[in-house]
Specification:
Mean pLDDT: 78
Low-confidence stretches: none
Keywords: Coiled coil
Organism: Bacillus wiedmannii
Distance between the termini: 131 Å
Structural class: alpha+beta
Order of helices and strands: HEEEEHEEEEEE
Largest sheet: 5 strands, antiparallel
Protein name: DUF7852 domain-containing protein
Number of domains: 2
Radius of gyration: 39 Å
Pfam family, one: DUF7852
């Protein structure tokens, strides 16, 4: 009987140990699940941000492929005086001729651009370092003519083989350079930059304040003017972020950009087209 009691106690003890072991395994399994869930929460994800970097160039241009035409009003006066009459006297006598010329406004279009840049993704630990980071800046150059000048009267054909048409004519083609520094600050913890999509958008263009010289009777030539171009660099930045619950550091992207912009000035003018 004593032997049977001991056997029952041993069996009961083994069962209890098995139950405890099972509980511990279940606890370990739950911990692993929690860790797996936490790790899945901080897996990297791809996000995007839109940045618009404004720029503008205004500079004098004095070289033209074909001279632009502007609206001119010219008035000529011939002063004369009639013979004196007994009952009246003319104080001022003039014969006036007024000529007004109307032309289409010159406008500007983008031809091409080259974008050279240096990108640096930084993780900043010290607030003093953050304060010393240089701010955004813009530096511009003057316009450089890159067209070949066409001399008026060159390769003129016979008058009978020419028709007159009003067409968009390239007044000139110019290249300008803009140096920019852009600082992009991220709110998340950023691991890396995946892709940056870039486009140049012009918002305003003007051919301003031309200097006009008179060549002869009712003929004028634009000697120089100012070309104003304003726009921005559109950037869609795709970056890889880690969705951690808390971080003290600041993450920012520093971009040093050199933009080479080529534009052309166009105006509708009457031209003579040679017929074959």
């Amino acid at each position: 009987e004593v032997s049977e009691v001991k056997k029952e106690e041993e069996v009961s003890k083994v069962k209890k140990e098995e139950e405890v072991s099972k509980v511990k395994k279940e606890e370990v399994s739950e911990v692993k699940k929690e860790n797996a869930t936490y790790e899945s929460q901080i897996e990297p994800s791809v996000r995007s941000m839109v940045v618009k970097t404004p720029f503008s160039i205004i500079s004098e241009v004095s070289s033209f492929k074909i001279f632009p035409k502007i609206n001119i009003k010219n008035q000529e006066a011939f002063v004369f005086q009639n013979e004196k009459d007994v009952g009246r006297r003319e104080l001022d006598s003039k014969l006036l001729t007024t000529v007004q010329q109307y032309h289409s406004e010159a406008y500007c279009e983008i031809v091409s651009f080259n974008l050279h840049e240096k990108r640096v993704l930084m993780e900043l630990y010290n607030k003093k370092v953050i304060g010393n980071i240089e701010e955004n800046k813009v530096e511009t150059s003057s316009w450089t003519p890159i067209h070949s000048i066409v001399l008026e009267g060159e390769n003129e054909g016979e008058i009978n083989n020419v028709i007159t048409a009003k067409l968009p004519i390239e007044i000139g083609k110019y290249k300008g350079e803009i140096i920019l520094r852009e600082k992009v600050v991220f709110k998340e913890k950023v691991i890396g930059i995946k892709e940056v999509e870039q486009e140049i958008v012009l918002t305003k263009t003007e051919f301003l304040v031309p200097k006009v010289i008179k060549n002869g009777q009712n003929t004028f030539t634009v000697e120089k003017g100012s070309l104003f171009v304003e726009g921005y660099i559109y950037q869609c930045i795709e970056y890889i972020s880690e969705q951690s619950t808390f971080h003290n550091n600041m993450y920012q992207l520093m971009q040093n950009i050199v933009l080479e912009l080529v534009v052309q000035v166009i105006q509708e003018q009457e031209v003579q087209v040679r017929m074959k």
